[in-house]
Amino acid sequence: MVLVLIETTICERAYAVTPSRIDLGMDTGRSDTATLGWEEWQVPNGTVAAKIFGEVQVMLHPAGAGEVIEGQWYKAALATGASMATDGVAVQSEEGEPATIVLELDGLNPGRHSLVTYHNAVTDGAVGSYSISIDGEKVIQGIKPTLRVPVNEDAESAYLEFETKPGQPVVIRISVESGSKNCVILNGIEIDGSDPKRKARVPTPENGDWHADGDNGQLHLTWKPAASSKKHLVYVASDKDADRAAEKIANAVENSEFLLGSTSDNGYDLTVDPKASQLVYCWRVDSVDSAGKVTRGDVWNFRVRHLAFPGAEGYGRFAIGGRGGRVIKVNNLDDSGPGSLRAAVEAKGPRTVVLDVGGRIILQDRLIIRDPYLTLAGQSAPGKGICISNYNLGLLGANDCILRFLRVRPGDTAGVTLDGMGMASCDNSIVDHCSISWTQDEAFSSRGAKDITLQRTLISEALNVAGHKKYKKGTQHGYAASIGGDIGSFHHNLLAHCAGRNWSLAGGLDKATRHAGRLDIRNNVVYNWSHRTTDGGAREVNFVNNYYKPGASTKVFHVLMAEREAVPSFGPQMYYVDGNVMEGRFDASQELAGVFERHGEPQENWIVKEPFFESYVSTNSAEETFEDVLSDVGCNRPVLDDHDKRVIEETRSGTTTYEGSVTGYPGLPDSQEDVGGWEDYPETHRSADWDTDGDGMPNWWEERQGLNPNSPPNDLTDSNGDANDDGYTNIEEYLQWMATNGHSE
């Protein structure tokens, strides 16, 4: 084996089309320490650890007898994005010998290779320096690990190149050479990549950003240049197939069609088609130094954003949903099995779920959507649509999901405490025109979410004294919603007949134990609460033009109670409040009349005069909101059911029809039976000749649009095409028509 120490990187060719990147970390079982484009290896503590990546076996062990490899991490760095650098594997030595990690690579093809090692200390204490040797020969020394960096790009790295021969593993020893702390850490490795210190990094759009702003047809690509770079070569390719686009750029050379040009700046203007949201753009920036030597850049990708559907607003408005994926039909009301709703939403990959059946789906267990890129189109159902009952339906940790025109009414028959719908830990998702009622826990929750929207949704009659398993018998609950998000948009919703949490601000704490959550709450109507309106806390809250209407059970008359925790280390919780109304109590001109902070802190300490961020919502006054929401809210496609008609009319007239069987409180049921239980949802099916080719669009619609109603089986050319070139696929056009006037034509 011939070893070559490279103190300055000269990468005139790529060692592999795609380097192998391995993110080493503590065996926590967490998913939030994983890094995009890296393989996560959570290494158990022990004397040796080994794992195969592709054709290469990676082995780790300490050099000293009796020593162990152990995981270390610094959780707070997750809050700033240091997913790779926030944790690692370490060896500590109590003896006189330097602490050493031995890294063995077995299975590399014979020939020339490179290796990058990353070193960022995550524990307190002075950090010494490291050396790296191979087969007893020291090749690099004086590596000074960084300490608790906020982002991966700031972590210290070491780079070397070497030749391998058949049957000979590469054995690397990383050792402490100085410092008071006899501990060595390794956060990650990269096999056959470029030197991080000599290549372009930190791209904008961020790698993997599938919601890049190309609205005006231009995207300014930027990157952080290496100190040694004098010029950059910019390569770009696009394709609907992400792998194909990546392969084009990975194999691109200087005379290829994918070279856009060169620049001495750290940016390049790219013309994009804002309607081509299915295209994946892959790009690469190679760095050229003063000697003309080229350091190959990484392959990055992005897609331009597009509205989820016309009328989608707020921070979840660019949810991709199942756009460009397969169409899955629901044709029965079974809990599970082929043709069921469960089978459709639990499927993998981009998918649009079309309902060829209407009626009541009686679930036997929770229905949790964990896989991304889903459009669940309740407006496609015949008859009265569907009602999901007995258990709940919600998103958990999924991104780019679109849920529209669904009813979820769990009730109290399952014997377990159930919520209704939610978007906990989700990103770029939207729930629109849904109806949620009769939950024992909160009807809706979105703790830990990112860019989400809840709009035009009717939350009503959360069960009050209903045997919540976490509370003693007889305790009132009846909670509407606990909401989080960064940023979460909650607009044009109706919350009626829910005793509390109208809303509960559940911003929580981030990984650095600082207040989290940025929420935009506007143009909502709240009616007939009991003891809690909007309370809780988040880092930044816009609370604008909401309409609160007391009812027969209402006991408190504020719209917002900021429960600000008096812990300075948690950071601030601040509010922008404007234009809110409580009928019969105060109007929009008395903007702070219904606001107080339970500790009595002066309002000027925590209420600001300008919004924290744009809402991206068509905003009404509070007075306009009342009628606007009542005229278009809940699952009103195909039709409003009798329950929602009643709740909307009670809100408009300020009345109640029923009372709780336990409490006697007007409008606040303790069981669904207090209000008559589930109404009749007749089982209704589409006819066999409705959609002959099974592409989700009925024959008459395809004929009207000039499409083929008799496409071959599994041919989705028509459904995923874009006949009018507006960025929405043909099946999205059909589903939007069904969401607007389709059921009335």
Automatic annotation (TrEMBL):
- Which residue stretches belong to region Disordered? 196-215, 652-728
Q: Which domain of life is it from?
A: Bacteria
Q: Ranges of Acidic residues compositional bias?
A: 671-681
Q: Does the keyword Metal-binding apply?
A: yes
Q: Give yes or no: UniProt keyword Metal-binding.
A: yes
**GO terms, molecular function:** metal ion binding
InterPro entries (alphabetical) = Pectin_lyas_fold (IPR012334), Pectin_lyase_fold/virulence (IPR011050), Polysaccharide_Lyase_1 (IPR052063)
Write out the entry's keywords from A to Z. Glycoprotein, Metal-binding
UniProt feature, compositional bias: Polar residues: 707-722
Name under which the protein is recorded: Pectate lyase
